[in-house]
Amino acid sequence: MRREQEDKSSESGSTIIGPSLSIKGEITGEGDLMVQGQVEGTIDFKNGNVSIGRTGCIKADIKGKSITIEGEVEGNLLGEKKIVLRPSGRVRGDMRAPAINLEEGAKFKGNIAMEAWDEKQPTLKEAPLARDRNVSSKT
Hints:
Layout: H1 2-12, E1 14-17, E2 22-28, E3 32-35, E4 38-52, E5 57-69, E6 72-74, E7 77-85, E8 90-92, E9 95-96, E10 99-102, E11 107-109, E12 112-113
Parallel strand pairs: 1-3, 2-4, 3-4, 4-5, 5-6, 5-7, 6-8, 7-9, 7-10, 8-11, 9-12
């Protein structure tokens, strides 16, 4: 059975970082990524889906087509299509995607920008927040 799962994972282009693994550095790829272990650095799977499982503990900025969080993330999330924060998920950082779903019980501290992004746009750290912009109002 395990061999079948490995074969399916390879065929679909999925990568799994198991709970016993700890990685420091930049992780990039084209397929999908499931993280059950620890990652510190950056995760760039902008053409694939990124899932952080319940045992996942991440200190990294994450780019992905669709991002699903069930574990812990400290870093910014950039989703091309959507970001989903499950009830067991915890995020400390900013999130930007056209659709963001915070399920009941999820914990989040940061800023949300519900808009599309591309490589030409500034990152969340570079983009000014609405409260920081000089906005004039007529009185």
